[in-house]
């Protein structure tokens, strides 16, 4: 697990404390209990704060899984470096 | 605090057992992350206690406020933003900002002022209210450029001022400081337009955290420190007394030492607000005595008691001052310009808050004043604040004259013309009672603390009795120094609150209180809801003295046992009210 994944896992663990760590990488809104609109807003606000990025409004509607968020972060942070 | 840290605090360790703190949150917006930050800050300030929040509906600020007076939370938090004065001032509402509409917005806002002033007193009478007025930038709803204050903006700000002024005098209402918030969260970093549009939450995360921190402090109201011990040379004044002489020390513009004068001014204000001031200086005793008599000191030398001026280690001076004041080391602050002296005191008294006086840095001295204000700030002043210093000085002088003692002699008590006044009034409730309970450590039956609401709930039970005792003798008044509360069942009295100020020790007041309880309530026994704490040694010693054995939880004192073991008392007892 690289540093980016570790930091994203910490965000997920804070928002979904009952989500087992072995299910973190496959987590998506449709399968995680408690992943509602409030959880989404909280998770994305936290990711923005943690990674120092701004997620555009369209992204907010699409980033509904760990995998998609990770890919988004890799692309966003890769671009900005 | 970051959002992830707030969530980790809330979802980390289990909250401590006990009743969660019930907080009503009144906002016109979705409180989302503010609520998370507030819960986390409260968890920290209340040492792990859980906070349960209730919130109103989105956009229904005034409806929620109206309902608030019907509820009974432990505390309420009211966050007002511009859009609560009129929805047209908000981003999510597209109501017109045309010049012709502005008067109508003002009319609505003025009506809201009246509504606010009608609602708030009813809430504040029942529970503490933490209040914040608009924190977001004023919306660009004006035809003037942004660098010019428009009449519209001035009038709306006057509405806010009017609400603030009417609220600030209400007991139980605590208003967030706009200046403090500005220091933590600059105005141009507060509004999050994207979040406001997407989720109805208008704050950027750092702003939400800063505001939550201030609001949490308003709810928790930390116990202020009781005393400050200051160094003299290069701290209270500029210069070393032993080198430059009494006329060589200064605190004025002319000698570039003005900030020492400003520090003195701050200490004088603290002293007048009831903070104990002492001095610890490595110096010639006589020199210091003379220097403190200088008429042009901004802080009169008489405000400082005791003064420890000699060549012994400062930790010893601090220990003697603590003994004279009879306060714990965690209640005081020590200020000195020498890091070495601070370290020496800290090593001997780890709980003392040691602060460096930055003698060569005027800006840092200015910052220090704010820090002192925070450490000593209190909710209100009491009569006792005005007499504390003198009563300690008098008692100390008396003890010296008597040549003694930890326990004052019968002879002294017999001639003291002591008068004990018992006030049994429960309504209106004297705020001094709760203040005394929540800050007394040494003579405290069980160390239990109360919130405003839990105290009100406890005391307003019809079968609960409350005594507030005031003391004076021929040497002067001590003010309200003891609180006793409990309930009677038949000929037994259950005492669950008993605190007495350390200034009132050695006057047999505790014996007289017990005697009065037995007599006035026609009792056969008193049951004490005792609990040992790390600090209530004096209370434990007293109970052991009258019980004849170490106290235990729910220990019982019979009238017969008390008669055997009591000491003679000579107080004249007055009663103010039958409650």
Give the strand content of chain A: under 5%
Low-confidence spans of chain B: none
The chain-level mean pLDDT of chain A equals 89
Largest interface, C-beta closer than 8 angstroms, per-chain residues:
A-B, 16 and 16 residues
Instruction: Return the string of H and E elements of chain A.
Output: HHHH
For the sheet with most strands of chain A, the description reads: none
What's the number of helices of chain A? Answer: 4
Q: Kindly name the structural category of chain A.
A: mainly alpha
Quaternary state of this entry equals: heterodimer
What CATH architecture label of chain A applies? Orthogonal Bundle
What's the story with the biggest beta sheet of chain B? 8 strands, mixed
| Distance N to C terminus of chain B | 47 Å
Q: Approximately how much helix is present in the residues of chain A?
A: 55-70%
The structural domain count of chain B equals 3
| Amount of beta strand of chain B | 15-25%
CATH superfamily of the largest domain in chain B: SGNH hydrolase
């Amino acid at each position: 697990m690289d540093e980016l994944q570790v930091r994203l896992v910490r965000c997920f663990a804070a928002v979904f404390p009952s989500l087992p760590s072995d299910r973190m990488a496959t987590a998506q809104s449709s399968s995680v209990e408690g992943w509602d609109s409030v959880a989404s807003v909280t998770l994305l606000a936290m990711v923005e704060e943690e990674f120092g990025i701004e997620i555009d409004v369209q992204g907010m509607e699409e980033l509904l899984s760990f995998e998609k968020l990770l890919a988004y972060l890799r692309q966003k942070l890769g671009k900005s470096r | 605090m970051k959002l992830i840290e707030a969530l980790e605090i809330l979802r980390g360790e289990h909250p401590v057992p006990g009743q969660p703190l019930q907080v009503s949150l009144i906002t016109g917006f979705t409180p989302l992350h503010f609520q998370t930050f507030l819960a986390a800050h409260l968890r920290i300030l209340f040492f792990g206690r859980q906070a349960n929040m209730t919130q109103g509906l989105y956009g229904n600020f005034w409806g929620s406020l109206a309902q608030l007076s019907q509820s009974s939370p432990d505390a309420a938090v009211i966050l007002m933003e511009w859009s609560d004065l009129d929805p047209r001032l908000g981003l999510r509402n597209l109501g017109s900002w045309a010049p012709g509409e502005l008067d109508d917005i003002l009319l609505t806002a003025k009506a809201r002022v009246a509504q606010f002033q009608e609602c708030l007193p009813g809430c504040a009478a029942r529970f503490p209210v933490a209040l914040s007025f608009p924190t977001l930038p004023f919306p660009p709803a004006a035809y003037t450029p942004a660098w010019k204050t428009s009449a519209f903006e001035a009038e709306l700000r006057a509405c806010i001022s009017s609400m603030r002024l009417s609220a600030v005098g209400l007991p139980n209402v605590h208003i967030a400081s706009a200046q403090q918030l500005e220091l933590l969260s600059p105005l141009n970093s507060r509004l999050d337009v994207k979040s406001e549009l997407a989720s109805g939450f208008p704050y950027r995360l750092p702003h939400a955290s800063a505001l939550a921190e201030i609001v949490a402090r308003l709810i928790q109201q930390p116990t202020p420190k009781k005393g400050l011990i200051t160094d003299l040379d290069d701290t209270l004044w500029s210069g070393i007394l032993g080198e430059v002489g009494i006329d060589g020390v200064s605190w004025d513009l002319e000698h570039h030492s003005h900030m020492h004068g400003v520090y003195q001014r701050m200490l004088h204000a603290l002293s007048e607000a009831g903070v104990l001031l002492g001095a610890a200086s490595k110096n010639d005793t006589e020199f210091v005595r003379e220097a403190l008599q200088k008429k042009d000191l901004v802080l009169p030398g008489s405000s400082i008691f005791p003064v420890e001026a000699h060549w012994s280690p400062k930790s010893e001076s601090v220990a003697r001052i603590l003994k004279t004041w009879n306060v714990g080391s965690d209640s005081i602050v020590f200020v000195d310009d020498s890091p070495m002296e601070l370290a020496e005191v800290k090593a001997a008294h780890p709980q003392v808050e040691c602060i460096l006086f930055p003698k060569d840095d005027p800006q840092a001295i200015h910052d220090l004043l704010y820090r002192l204000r925070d450490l000593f700030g209190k909710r209100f002043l009491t009569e006792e604040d005005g007499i504390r210093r003198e009563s300690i000085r008098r008692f100390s002088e008396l003890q010296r004259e008597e040549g003694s003692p930890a326990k004052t002699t019968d002879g002294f008590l017999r001639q003291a013309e002591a008068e004990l006044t018992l006030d049994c009034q429960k309504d209106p409730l004297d705020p001094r009672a709760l203040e005394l309970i929540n800050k007394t450590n040494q003579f405290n039956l069980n160390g239990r603390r109360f919130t405003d609401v839990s105290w009100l709930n406890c005391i307003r039970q019809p079968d609960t009795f409350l005594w507030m005792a005031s003391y004076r003798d021929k040497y002067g008044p001590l003010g309200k120094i003891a609180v006793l509360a409990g309930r009677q069942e038949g000929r037994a009295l259950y005492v669950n609150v008993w605190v007495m100020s350390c200034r009132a020790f050695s006057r047999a007041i505790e014996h007289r209180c017990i005697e009065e309880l037995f007599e006035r309530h026609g009792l056969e026994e008193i049951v004490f809801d005792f609990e040992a704490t790390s600090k209530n040694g004096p209370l434990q010693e007293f109970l052991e003295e009258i019980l004849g054995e170490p106290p235990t939880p729910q220990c019982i004192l019979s009238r017969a046992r008390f008669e055997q073991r009591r000491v003679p008392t000579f107080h004249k007892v007055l009663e103010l009210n039958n409650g």
